[in-house]
Amino acid sequence: MSSKQEDKTLMPAEKQALVPKLRFPEFRKVGEWERKPLKSICVMQAGKFVAAADIFENSRYDLYPCYGGNGLRGYTKTHTHSGKYPLIGRQGALCGNVNLVNGQFHATEHAVVTTPKSEVNVDWLYYMLDLLNLNRFATGQAQPGLSVEVLDKVQSFVPQEPEQQKIADCLTSLDELITLEAQKLDTLKTHKKGLMQQLFPAEGKTVPKLRFPEFREASEWKKQRISSLLVRAVRPLSVKIEETYREIGIRSHGKGIFHKEPVLGKSLGDKRVFHVEESAFVLNIVFAWEQAVAVTSVAEKGMIASHRFPMYKPREHKSDVEFIKYFFLTCKGRELLGIASPGGAGRNKTLGQKEFEKLEFLSPEKVEEQTTIACCLSSIDDLIAVQTQKLDVLKTHKKGLLQQLFPALDEVQG
C-alpha cells in the first residue's frame, strides 16, 4: 500500500490507554483493545524431535520443510502440521524469532507451533507476536531458551476480529511487495554471478566465453604477475595526539569499504597508519582469503588505514584496479588469495604481501578491455545498490507502520 493510500485510510487515534497510534477510520470509535495473556488467544505447543541424520539440506518432491529454533533447518520425510501457523523459536541466542509458515511441514522440539483460537486472525497473530520481541523473556545465559509456560503468560493486546483482518491485510500487502522487490534483488545478484563466470576465462581456457565485440579479434589473455600490474602505495602518517582521524575497514565477500568512528590520535597509540590513496586496490590481509578486497574512492579522502590494509595503484597502461578487484571476487581469485594466505583457519590465515605480489592470473593485455569489463560489472553493482536501498526503505516503512498499528509495548507489558 502506498503512503498516499495510507494517508487516506489511517488517521492518528485519540490518546487512550490501549489503542494504536494509527487506526483505520471505521474502528476509531470501537474502543480500546483488550489486554490478554497469550494463552487466552492461542495454543502453543513445541514440535517433535527429528534426528539430524533425517534432515536433508536440499528440497525434493518427497520432502517437507523442517523448522527449528532459527527458522528453516532443512527438509524431512515426515510432517507434523498442515496449514498456516506462526512458529516461535524457543532455543538459542535467537530464540523468540517468529516465522509464518504455510502448508505441510515438520516442526522440531525447538520450535513452538502457535495455533490461534477462535476469533483470532492467524496473520494478525503473526505480526503481533513478532512485535512483542519475545527474546526478552528468555531465561538462561549459556543457552537462552523460552518455555511454553513463560510464553503463555506474556501479555498481548487484542482488537476485535474485523480490525485484526484489516491490519493483517495492510501488512500482508506490504510483505508481498517486499518479497517481490527481494526477488528482483536476487535476480540481479544471480545475473551478476553468471556474467562474471562468462567475462573471465574458465579453467583451462585463455579467453572468456563472453567477449565484447571490439575485443573479439584481440589476442588471448596472458598470465601476468600482480607485481607487473600494480605498485604498492605507501604514505606513512605521523599521528598527532590531539587531531581526529578516521580509519577504514573492509568487509569480506567483496561487500566494500566501511568507515570507522572518528578517534583522537592518542587513542591510536603506537599503531602504524597510512594515508588512504584514492582509486587504489586495497585488501584486508587478515581476511583476504575471504575476499575482503575493495577499491578506494573519493569517499575515503583524508582517511587513514592501518598496516593491515595494504594499498596498490595501477601501473600506467598496465591495469585497471576495478578489473583486478572483480577478478579476485571470482572463484579463481579466491583460490589465489587463499594460496597467498598460508596458515590455519580464521585470523591465522594472514595474507603474505610478497606472496600476493607473486600471484599470476590471466588478464587482457589491453587495459581498455579490462576497463570495459569493470564498467559492465560496476553498472550491475549500481543497480544492485539501488535495489538494495529500495528494499531497505520498504522494510523500514513496514517496521514503522507495524509499530503504529499496534499499541506501544510499554502500555501492554506495564
Describe the structure.
With 414 residues, this protein is α+β, with helices and mostly antiparallel strands. It has two domains: 3-180 and 391-413, DNA methylase specificity domains (Adenine-n6-DNA-methyltransferase TaqI, Chain A, domain 2, Alpha-Beta Complex), CATH 3.90.220.20; 222-363, Alpha-Beta Complex (Adenine-n6-DNA-methyltransferase TaqI, Chain A, domain 2), CATH 3.90.220. It is 32% helix and 22% strand. It is built from ten helices and 22 strands. It has helices at 3-9, 122-131, 148-153, 161-199, 226-229, 321-327, 331-339, 353-358, 367-405, 409-413; strands spanning 11-12, 22-23, 34-37, 42-46, 64-68, 71-76, 81-89, 98-107, 111-116, 155-158, 222-225, 230-233, 244-245, 248-250, 257-259, 263-264, 273-275, 281-283, 293-295, 304-306, 311-314, 360-363. A six-stranded mixed β-sheet has the order 4-9-7-8-5-6. Strand 7 and strand 8 (98-107) form a beta hairpin. The chain is elongated and about 75 Å long. Belongs to the type-I restriction system S methylase family. One of its GO terms (biological process) is DNA restriction-modification system. Residues 32-189, 285-395 form the Type I restriction modification DNA specificity domain.
List keywords for this structure.
414 residues; alpha+beta; Adenine-n6-DNA-methyltransferase TaqI, Chain A, domain 2; 2 domains; six-stranded mixed beta sheet; four-stranded antiparallel beta sheet; 10 helices
